[in-house]
Amino acid sequence: MKVLVAVKRVIDYNVKIRVKPDHSDVDLTNVKMAMNPFCEIAVEEAVRLKEKGVASEVVAVTIGPKAAQEQLRTALALGADRAIHVETDDKVESLTAAKLLKRVVDDEQPGLTILGKQSIDTDNNQTGQMLAALAGMGQGTFASEVQVEGDDVQVTREIDGGLQTVALKLPAVITTDLRLNEPRYAKLPDIMKAKKKPIDVKSPDDLGVAVASSLSVLKVESPAERQGGTKVASVDELVDKLKNEAKVIA
Amino acid sequence: MSILVIAEHHNGQLAESTAHVVAAAQAIGGDIEILVAGESVAGVAESAAKLTGVSKVRVADDGVYAHQLAEPMAELIAGLASGYSHVLAAASTQGKNVLPRVAALKDVAAISEVLAVESPDTFLRPIYAGNAIATVQSSDALKVLTVRTTAFDAVEATGSAGVEAVTAEVDNTLSRFIGEELASSDRPELGSARVVVSGGRGMGNGENFKLLDGIADKLGAAIGASRAAVDAGFVPNDMQVGQTGKIVAPELYIAVGISGAIQHLAGMKDAKVIVAINKDEEAPIFQVADYGLVGDLFEVLPELESKL
């Protein structure tokens, strides 16, 4: 079975973001970029499926500018066999990303497609669900455990208040949550080897998908600043303030 | 305009979140209807009909909707959606699972975690873990939104809407429910707790997290942790509060032995009141804390527990 794993280039999770002075967007110039953390978990899961003999091939795919090939190289160093780069400099909304991935799924016919549950830039948490809808597949979102059994995949999902397990008919779409696995670090020899693995570059046009969106971002602002910084001298003072000033405890 | 709110319910009880979503629907304005889909949900529909501002409750009561799996739920909602200008659900794991699927079936965008309604087509939502707020406008005829429930005050239960059955031909060959394991802990859930007490690397080890138990018991709090504490193996990562963990917005957040890395602040800075306890007075957590106490947590915690 082939596994397709989608990855996204995003701002590194440790970087403090700045909103552009003209409020058009977040400023990404000269900012450290990395693979979205939930996508790292997706790659790890795909590679583990291959190591277990469940997957025969792992194909990584990304949508984004030329520089997004860095993240594909990371996926290849972590164990993906080859990669597909849907190259575009345009901002791609979730529905468009899902349509592009649907075309890749049509071409590649993977048994499983694994994505991160959300990217830490737009925080939409939509693409996997949308891809599953467009492909007519079942979806196992927010996965904390994945087990392929015959024609099914059993997915344990992190839901509010606990865990839910569903069985999906293959082919299916899975989105990863934090607890699914702990991603490995790429080893230097694997990073070298990854440089020789193939990346197939396509444009949205090649896939017959228009990169247009019905959503427009009118402005991006910083949230209201917190007025913090007040210190208390003792536990007694703290308890008093919480009771009588903030009134958050009885 | 006509708005369809997807009711959330568990074990035959209407979830509190639905009353918040109805409030978001009121902010948009228009006729508000609720869809209750599930198996044996007459009681849920009855509760939903009482929510203020709701004109009608539509009930799809059928085994195919048991456990509200995404595939049949989305098919049902997409089939009903043509009559509406907006479809809304809570930005819970349930709403986030189902609504993007509905949007794709209708070939429209979905807007996640709406914090405020500026106009019927323009909404505010958090991006970058709440470190920026985007104002987004949709040109789709149908707007599909998930709503951050803490951003809208719940409507009251003073109404008496009519209830009518929906008949739709939906079957599900894609997914099957296997089982559910709901946390039976006496503690509230991290994501919705009124008070959260979190420990960081300063706790020293996993055993010391027990020091937080007594305080959490007294305050009815959930217990969280920073990524540093999770990475150090002190506690499992389902306790992680932060950009890649749980985003929380409780009334009171107590950060113990947490330095305040950006990744952690992103997950808790919307708390109403933040308390920081840390021995390093330069720790960045103090810059966002309403009440900072510089001290050794191993002395402060027992004292705090005894004085609460």
UniProtKB/TrEMBL annotation, chain A:
The record's annotation in CDD domains points to: ETF_beta (cd01714)
| Stretches assigned to coiled coil | none
The highest taxon in the source lineage is Bacteria
Share an example GO biological-process annotation for this protein.
carboxylic acid catabolic process
Pfam families documented for this protein: ETF
SMART domains referenced in this protein's UniProt entry, alphabetically: ETF (SM00893)
UniProt keywords, alphabetically = Electron transport, Transport
Keyword check for Lyase: no
In this chain the Electron transfer flavoprotein alpha/beta-subunit N-terminal domain maps to 23-211
Which co-factor is required?
Answer: AMP
Q: Which InterPro entries has this protein been placed in? A: ET-Flavoprotein_bsu_CS, ETF_a/b_N, ETF_b, ETF_beta_N, Rossmann-like_a/b/a_fold
MF terms from GO for this chain are: electron transfer activity
Q: How does it assemble?
A: Heterodimer of an alpha and a beta subunit.
Q: Which family does it belong to?
A: Belongs to the ETF beta-subunit/FixA family.
Function as written in the Swiss-Prot or TrEMBL entry: The electron transfer flavoprotein serves as a specific electron acceptor for other dehydrogenases. It transfers the electrons to the main respiratory chain via ETF-ubiquinone oxidoreductase (ETF dehydrogenase).
Q: What is this protein called?
A: Electron transfer flavoprotein subunit beta
Organism of origin is: Chromohalobacter moromii
